[in-house]
Each structure stands twice: as structure tokens, then as C-alpha cells.
């Protein structure tokens, strides 16, 4: 699950290609009783931990915005994106790989994310209730996460043009040994992987 600021990308063994959900969301609504079944395509009314959140066209009447511009991906914004993805595309018991930028990647960040995800969950989406468990979570660096899906042999470069950052990574893979890892540099002033802050939106426009 690549729970980005703009879009939430989901891949599972049962999907022919990754699914994409818009990430932007608001909470609080001037009409909490949105008509049952009145959910335009791509819109979601989500009830989680006693609060209502709205995605897509349903955000128009919402009173407060959740922001993706935070120093951690353990906030409600990103945790809710992950839970929504699992509810819609996951299983009763789930083993999750998700990501955080290289510049934020640390043992503390990993613990903050995993502590909020591992366990039993209940979430209501468009009036349907979903219950599931997350048995384990692996948090990897952004851009590197793609290598877990494709697992190519040899050296490969990965680029993640995110909403907030640009992530880049280099990996080495040997499928015969099921061995895939980040390349490491012996030069302390050079890195094969990293984060360019606040460059994602500008780069996407140029491309």
C-alpha cells in the first residue's frame, strides 16, 4: 500500500493491476446523515473511531480538512488511507507493506506506523461495515516499495514522484535466491537512495 498524499495505490495477489483511490479527505459534515446509498462514484463516507470522514464529491460540505503535510506518516490522514485500502481490497487477515520517505525513515517512524496498524479493525465505508485484522506490517522507504511488487533481477532504479516529495532508490535483486536489497554507497557523501523535499508536485507538472 503506497498511501500517498494525492493517491492511495494498492496491490494484492488478486488484483491484475494496482488499484488507485484519491487520498484527499475531510471530516466533520454539515449533514452527517448523508442519504444512504447516495454516494457518487469515487466518493466515500467513512466512519472510523466514531468520526465521519468524506472523500471525493462528498467533501464539498465538510467542515474540516485533514492534511498530508506532516513530518510523519503515522497520522490519521495516512492511517485511514491504509485502513480504507485494506477494507476495500484486502483480506480477513492481512500482511501489509507500506512506506515512508527516506528522509523520515527511522526506527521511531516504523514503530509509530506499525503500532497503529497491527491489530483488529472496524471501519464503515458507504454504509457497509468491514472488520479485518492486520497481522504484520513492514515499513520500507518510498520508491523502494515498488521493488517488492516487481522483484527484478540485477540493479534497478526507482523514482517516486509524490505529492510532497521525490523519492529515489536503487536496488539489487537475485530472484534465484529471493534476495532483494537496497544498494549502499561506500562514499558517505553519496547515496543511491534518498528524498528530495517539496519537489514532487513541480516535477509532475514539468513531466
Detailed description of the structure:
- There is one protein chain.
- The relative contact order is 0.14.
- The mean pLDDT is 81.
- By secondary structure, the protein is of the alpha+beta class.
- The protein has helices at 76-89, 107-117, 145-150, 200-206, and strands spanning 2-3, 7-10, 19-22, 25-29, 44-48, 51-55, 62-65, 93-100, 119-125, 128-141, 154-161, 165-174, 179-182, 194-197.
- 18% of the residues lie in helices and 41% in strands.
- It has a 7-stranded mixed β-sheet with strand order 7-4-6-5-9-10-8. Strands 11, 12, 13 and 14 form a 4-stranded antiparallel β-sheet that branches.
Layout of strands and helices, then pairs:
Layout (H helix, E strand, L loop, with lengths): L1 E2 L3 E4 L8 E4 L2 E5 L14 E5 L2 E5 L6 E4 L10 H14 L3 E8 L6 H11 L1 E7 L2 E14 L3 H6 L3 E8 L3 E10 L4 E4 L11 E4 L2 H7 L1
Parallel strand pairs: 8-10
Antiparallel strand pairs: 1-2, 2-3, 4-6, 4-7, 5-6, 5-9, 9-10, 11-12, 12-13, 12-14
Amino acid at each position: 500500500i503506497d498511501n500517498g498524499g494525492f493517491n492511495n495505490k494498492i496491490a494484492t495477489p488478486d488484483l491484475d493491476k494496482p488499484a488507485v483511490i484519491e487520498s484527499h479527505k475531510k471530516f466533520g459534515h454539515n449533514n452527517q446523515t448523508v442519504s444512504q446509498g447516495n454516494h457518487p462514484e469515487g466518493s466515500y463516507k467513512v466512519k472510523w473511531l466514531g468520526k465521519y470522514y468524506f472523500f471525493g464529491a462528498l467533501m464539498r460540505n465538510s467542515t474540516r480538512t485533514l492534511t498530508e503535510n506532516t513530518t510523519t506518516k503515522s497520522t490519521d490522514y495516512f492511517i485511514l488511507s491504509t485502513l480504507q485500502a485494506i477494507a476495500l481490497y484486502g483480506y480477513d487477515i492481512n500482511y501489509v507493506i507500506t512506506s515512508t520517505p527516506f528522509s523520515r525513515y527511522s526506527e521511531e517512524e516504523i514503530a509509530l506506523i506499525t503500532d497503529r496498524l497491527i491489530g483488529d479493525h472496524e471501519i464503515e465505508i458507504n454504509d457497509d461495515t468491514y472488520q479485518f485484522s492486520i497481522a504484520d506490517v513492514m515499513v520500507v522507504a518510498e520508491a523502494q516499495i515498488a521493488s517488492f511488487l516487481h522483484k527484478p533481477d540485477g540493479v534497478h532504479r526507482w523514482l517516486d514522484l509524490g505529492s510532497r516529495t521525490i523519492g529515489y532508490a536503487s536496488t539489487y535483486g537475485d530472484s534465484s535466491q529471493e534476495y532483494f536489497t537496497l544498494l549502499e554507497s561506500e562514499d558517505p557523501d553519496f547515496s543511491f537512495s534518498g528524498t528530495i523535499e517539496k519537489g514532487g508536485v513541480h516535477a509532475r507538472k514539468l513531466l
